[in-house]
Amino acid sequence: MAKTQTSRGRAQDRARVAGGQNHLVNYEAKKEGVSKDTVKKSVKNAGNSRKKVEAEIDRH
Question: pTM of this prediction?
Fold first, then answer.
């Protein structure tokens, strides 16, 4: 039986920034116009919520 594809989990993935995943860090750095180190520090300080990381980057 074929498994139907759902969007479950996709919204959760997009709401997070994993500091250890280089492709996610690179994406966020390019999107925000900052360095990869800045994104990693923001993830460490604010947690992995994308909204909190972006707010932390905007504060600096």
Answer: 0.79
The per-residue pLDDT of the chain, averaged, comes to 89
Supply 20's token pair. Answer: 């250890």
CA dihedral (41, 51, 25, 32) positive or negative: negative
Task: Give percent of the chain above pLDDT 90.
Answer: 68
- Name the 3-class secondary structure at 46: helix
Side chain identity at 38, as an amino acid letter? T
Q: Within its chain, how far is the Cα of 5 from the centroid?
A: 24
Percentage of the chain surpassing pLDDT 70? Answer: 92
Residues 6+ apart with CB under 8 A from 34: 57
